[in-house]
Write a structure and sequence with these properties.
Rossmann fold, DNA polymerase, domain 1, 5-stranded parallel sheet, 11 helices, elongated
């Protein structure tokens, strides 16, 4: 029986707009979109999301990767970073109703800047959670096994009583390989069908959507 439901944030609870972020940086630095995208290193992003870099170190690592000399200001970098996050999705409207019957947790590859300055201030869904597992605290990112083990340890949940909802299949595949239930989120209709299959009936959630 499912007792804990873990939600990814990006593209599940809120819309993500990387194109807005890249465009803002390109305009601010007077560079092309290709130059911005080339400079955005997956390795540096991984280090930031696993707590290995401070906010300032993340900014400087990105700026150093741009064509030099570069006029990108730190303030413009963070304004662009804010533009990555969009509005809440319909899924977030489920949180309050689900929290009456289940322990609700976040499980997200993310960074302290987005959590501190955006998620905790702009959105409603954090009001309806029991806790959150963030990659920068866990020092690991999905789909690494370590973050799933960390999530169970911190939440006190068991894998067999846990459901994870994420928009990336590889993250769900890892959860399932560890004994969790998982839903690869694609759209609301598909999510409601799969929740019903797991015995999580969505009829009473309709008013929240």
């Amino acid at each position: 029986m499912i007792q804990h439901i873990f939600f990814d944030i990006g593209n599940v609870l809120i819309h993500i707009h990387p194109e807005r972020c890249v465009q803002y940086w390109a305009d601010s630095a007077d560079l092309s979109l290709d130059e911005i995208e080339t400079a955005f290193s997956d390795e540096v992003h991984h280090a930031y999301e696993t707590g290995q870099l401070t906010d300032y170190e993340f900014f400087t690592a990105f700026k150093d990767g741009l064509p030099q000399p570069c006029c990108l200001k730190e303030s413009d970098f963070w304004r662009g970073w804010q533009k990555l996050l969009g509005k809440e999705t319909a899924v977030s409207g489920m949180m309050e109703s689900l929290s009456a019957d289940y322990k609700i947790w976040l499980l997200s590859n993310t960074n302290p800047r987005h959590i501190r300055d955006e998620i905790e201030l702009r959105y409603r869904f954090p009001q309806h959670i029991d806790g959150a597992i963030y990659s920068f605290d866990a020092e690991s990112r999905k789909p690494d096994r370590a973050i799933y083990d960390y999530a169970l340890r911190v939440s006190g949940a068991s894998a067999s009583a846990s459901l994870f909802i994420d928009d990336l299949k590889e993250n769900i595949d890892m959860a399932k390989s560890l004994g969790w239930a998982g839903i690869h989120y694609q759209d609301m209709d598909q999510l409601k069908i799969e929740l019903n299959t797991l015995g999580i009936h969505t009829q009473k959630l309709e008013t929240a959507l």
